[in-house]
Amino acid sequence: MATIFYKDLSLDFTPHPVTGDVRPITNETAIKRSLANLIRTKRGTRPFYPEYGSTLANFLFSDMNVFSAHSLKQELTETIGKFEPRVALTNVQVDTQSDENGIQIRIDFIIKNIGVQSSLQTTLTRTA
After folding, report:
1. pLDDT digits (tens, 9 = 90+) for 73-128
2. Can you give the CATH number for the domain in which 72 is found?
3. Is the dihedral of CA 33, 41, 120, 84 positive or negative?
4. Which structural domain range is residue 111 located in?
5. Is 5 among the domain residues?
6. CA atoms of 75 and 56, how far apart (whole Å)
7. Contact 77, 105 (CB under 8 A)
8. CA–CA distance, 81 with 27 (Å, rounded to integer)
9. C-alpha to C-alpha distance for 26 and 6, rounded to whole angstroms
10. Considering its fold, how many domains does the chain have in total?
11. Is residue 8 part of a domain?
12. How many whole angstroms from its chain centre is CA 121?
């Protein structure tokens, strides 16, 4: 059994079948959930911690081109580097989907202390 280095609470609050407590998520699942929450949290919306989050939502409503995709990649790299010390980024890829008014993001990383290489893929779309 793998050693548990990182443990977070599951935000869907699924109870443990025996204890009834909130079931924790560990290691890779915890890191992926943390990264997804970090990039989807709009900067300035977290009480008492206004600098937490990213400006990803601003890019959804702008004209996406090569330059804005590069700016978003740089923004995500800096945000993850600042707020998620448990990972070492290996690659951040941003693909624009102008036909669907969306952005596809792939974040490749290595989990520190475990050495597990993983990736998070997410697609964000704006609604009318």
Report:
1. 999 999 999 999 999 999 999 998 766 678 899 999 999 988 999 999 998 887 65
2. 3.10.450.40
3. negative
4. 21-125
5. no
6. 8
7. no
8. 18
9. 6
10. 1
11. no
12. 9
